[in-house]
Amino acid sequence: MRSDDADAVDTRLGARLAELRTEHGYSLGELADRSGVSRSTLSRAERAEVSPTASLLNRLCAVYGRTMSQLLSEVEAEPAPVVRTADQPVWQDQASGFVRRSVSPPHAALRGELVEGRLTAGADIAYDRPPVAGLEQHIWVLEGALDVTAQDTEHRLGAGDCLRMRVWGPTRFRCAAPEGVRYLLAVVRP
Q1: Half-sphere exposure of 187 (CA within 13 A, CB side)
Q2: Residue 78 pLDDT greater than 80, yes or no
Q3: What is the mean pLDDT of residues 39-64?
Q4: Which of 37, 88, 152, 155 is the most exposed place for a label (fewest CB within 10 A)?
């Protein structure tokens, strides 16, 4: 069962997605063509009838030229200089088993942010493109194991390992541990 907080975030997120489409002058059909997401799915996401998946948000972020964290920060409260654990926004993609905690939310004056990611055992998330071409990412595995594929190269990461890369094309994150994986993602916009 979903919490009222999760429903409220989905409602604000849907409204923001509709605003972005209007700001860019796209019809649902045009946005569907640009993102590869069906018109009906886009419409349902904008009306908060469905909770968008990480993959769907990534496709829309690529069209709008922003990171997922930037998009989600637009529907979250303005970040304070110190973000207490209890105040770090959490977003969950129940379909894929991905939980995202915005440890250090994006800020207009800063290019970097920190995200804690958790994937359940067997979770597999494929992104067909980066939200922003050339995005710098540092993935530090805290617990478990993670397989990351970028530029047709697969990297197996265990606890304590860190992968540094710029993202230009498709990426894939797979939980390689039976107990799940927890990792820190440092994102730096170009």
Answers
A1: 25
A2: no
A3: 92
A4: 152
Q: For residues 157 and 145, is the Cβ–Cβ distance under 8 A? A: yes
CB distance 68 to 131 below 8 Å? yes
pLDDT of residue 77: 54
Helices 28-35 + 54-64 axis angle, to 10: 100
Write the DSSP assignment of the chain as a string of letters: ---HHHHHHHHHHHHHHHHHHHHTT--HHHHHHHH---HHHHHHHHTTSSPPPHHHHHHHHHHHT--HHHHHHTTSPPPPSS--GGGS-EEEETTTTEEEEEEE---TT-SEEEEEEEE-TT-EEEESS-SSTTEEEEEEEEESEEEEEETTEEEEEETT-EEEEEE-S-EEEEE-STT-EEEEEEEE--
* Concatenated DSSP letters of 75-111: TSPPPPSS--GGGS-EEEETTTTEEEEEEE---TT-S
The reported pLDDT for the residue numbered 7 is 74
Q: Output the pLDDT for position 67.
A: 87
The predicted pLDDT at position 8 comes to 77
